[in-house]
Amino acid sequence: MNEHDELPNVVMPHPPHRNLLRGQKALVTGANSGIGKSVAMFLAQEGADVVVNYVYGDAAAHEVVDEIKAKGGHAIAIKADVSKEDEVQAMFSQMIADFGTVDILVNNAGLQKDAPIDEMTLEQWNTVINVNLTGQFLCAREAIREFKRRGVVSEISCAAGKIISMSSVHEVIPWAGHVNYAASKGGVMLMTKSIAQEVAPYRIRVNSVCPGAIRTPINQSAWETPQAYDDLMRLIPYKRIGEPDDIGRAVVWLASDDADYINGISLFIDGGMTLYPGFATGG
Ligand code: BGC
């Protein structure tokens, strides 16, 4: 095979259930589509009860809940804008009332509002920072309050709680035309590591996952035409786009006790996008 041969975009079949998260209560923000949906499905498959948070798209959120229930899992949908303090607090109160506690927070909700820097409006800047960064802060704070209140319940997990921040390869790769987004993810990186350092003594683990190009609505223009897909492949040494399930699987593992000694990392899941593919030849 030479490197220009067409390679199939194969992803592994779903692994057998190990019930890795049995008895755990998980909240996934922005779980009505894309990566968040896959994460919610995988957490439920491993035995967690799941809150499917969303802000727009009631029908899609309820479909995720129905899909989880159809597979024998337990889920509820809660609408809340993660950038609003009162809505986040109400969501956590509802979760704790319905499920009893929170063991896992997946801070996934995020968006892009792209523009050249000299055309970017303050509203585009604020919207991205408020959802992607402040939203993760507000949810992490509520989760940690609950983790500290409850402490470790050893039959459930070695840890008092787990937070997984959805970051991006753009926590380290600068991104022209997406200054607000890259700034938000750079912020997520140091927020995640700083929180991890602060709460580790309470047996709380805080890690981030950094997806590369994953086939979701957020980046449809980067994969929907053959030309766009070919251009994208120049950035991906592994020569396939990522699928939401590539991320869902990794999040389950990071949230589980299999990853109990992992704290404060950025786990890149990007087909090698951060390997400076431009240097594969030249330099
Ligand atoms: C962005 C996508 C982009 C990918 C790789 C992600 O964080 O949301 O739009 O395709 O990074 O550049």
Task: Explain this structure.
The structure is a single chain. The chain has a seven-stranded parallel beta sheet, with helices on both faces. Strand 5 (161-166), helix 5 and strand 6 (204-211) form a beta-alpha-beta unit. The mean pLDDT is 96. 39% of the residues lie in helices and 13% in strands. With 283 residues, the chain is an alpha/beta fold. The two termini are 26 Å apart. It has a single domain (25-269), classed as NAD(P)-binding Rossmann-like Domain (Rossmann fold), CATH 3.40.50. The protein has seven helices and seven strands. Beta-D-glucopyranose is lined by residues 112, 168-170, 212-213, 218-219, 222.
How many domains, in number, for the residues? 1
CATH architecture field: 3-Layer(aba) Sandwich
Report the structural category: alpha/beta
Classify the helix fraction into a percent range: 25-40%
Flag low-confidence runs.
Answer: none
Average residue-wise pLDDT: 96
Amount of beta strand = 5-15%
Question: What's the arrangement of secondary structure elements?
Answer:
Elements: E1 25-28, H1 34-45, E2 49-54, H2 58-70, E3 75-79, H3 85-99, E4 104-107, H4 122-150, E5 161-166, H5 179-199, E6 204-211, H6 226-233, H7 244-255, E7 266-269
Parallel strand pairs: 1-2, 1-4, 2-3, 4-5, 5-6, 6-7
Bound molecules: beta-D-glucopyranose.
Beta-D-glucopyranose (BGC) binds next to loops.
